[in-house]
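Quick check before the chapter quiz. The format below is the same one you will see on the exam, so make sure you can read both the input and the output lines.
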Amino acid sequence: MSEIRLGLAVCGSYCTFDKIMPVAEKLAEDFDLTVIMSENAFEIDTRFGKAEDAKKRLGSISGKEIISSITAAEPIGPKKLFDVLAVAPCTGNTLAKLSGGIADSSVTMACKAHLRNGRPLVIAVSTNDGLSANAANIGEMINRKNVYFVPFGQDDPVGKPYSLISDLSLLKKSIDMALEGKQLQPMLLGAK
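Here is the expected output.
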């Protein structure tokens, strides 16, 4: 395990939970991993699974208590807890809040607290409105200092023409590049 401290913030894009779990396991081999979960991801059961199962698995992967409240996330900045923070998956709701400077959840507070130290934030989008309501927010965040994106593209151009999703297999490489102050290219991927 590396001495690089990685925060992995998981938002409520429940349909991607099955994809983020094996990625988190690999990240835990390469980084000193701490998991942050949005309150919704931490508490809500969905057709994709039970919140308790996700909490147990992520807690087991990191071996640490999950950060799941604003008050628990706030010290991330003052204590400089992470060298890099990744939001994967990052919902459109969280993306919009980050773009607007809103810190009203554990994940948005973690991001705000982390960015105040000039450290890299990596975003893996997973949103059904990435090419509509959230397009402006993606553009805004691309222009922010110390913010990097996991390459993304349309996941279902015919069935969900506005939907965007990051390729989570590129999360580790995106993190490594962000630690060097570089955006992994190409940022825009072709349709899956």
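If your answer matched, good. The beta strands are 5-10, 32-37, 84-90, 121-127, 147-149, 152-154, 164-166.
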